[in-house]
């Protein structure tokens, strides 16, 4: 169980951060008088959370075997997120012929929040793999 301490910590902190960011997001929408749950907002947070956790767990699982390729796998994870955007969110956002600012924000706020944590924890994981030099 202790072997998966870092992925569990990552998922827990990511969940807490995304809940806080989601609350702030709703608060700002409310202040501006915008609809709170439009633009697939909840789905965006859920999808970004799930993809970030899955990608991090895959990176963690292959951290020793593919140590020199983790950076490429990380970038591949970002590619998967953009594919998810184009498959899940883009058709709905583009249905009126134009992607509105609030639609973009609905996807990119949770995406960037998860990306920052993914980057930090992937870096932390890789630093833990380095052997101390004699």
Automatic annotation (TrEMBL):
The keyword Transmembrane is annotated on this UniProt entry: yes
Transmembrane segments: 12-31, 43-62, 69-90, 102-121
The keyword Membrane belongs to this UniProt entry's keyword annotation: yes
Lineage top rank: taxon: Bacteria
Keywords: Membrane, Transmembrane, Transmembrane helix
UniProt name for this protein: Uncharacterized protein
Organism: Croceitalea rosinachiae
């Amino acid at each position: 169980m202790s072997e998966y301490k870092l992925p569990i910590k990552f998922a827990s902190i990511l969940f807490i951060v995304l809940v806080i960011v989601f609350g702030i997001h709703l608060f700002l929408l409310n202040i501006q008088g915008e609809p709170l749950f439009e633009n697939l907002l909840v789905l965006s947070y859920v999808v970004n959370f799930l993809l970030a956790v899955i990608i991090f767990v895959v990176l963690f699982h292959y951290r020793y075997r593919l140590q020199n390729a983790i950076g490429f796998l990380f970038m591949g994870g970002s590619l998967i997120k953009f594919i998810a955007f184009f498959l899940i969110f883009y058709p709905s956002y583009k249905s009126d012929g134009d992607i509105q600012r609030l639609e973009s924000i609905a996807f990119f706020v949770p995406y960037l929040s998860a990306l920052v944590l993914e980057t930090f924890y992937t870096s932390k994981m890789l630093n833990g793999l380095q052997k101390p030099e004699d």
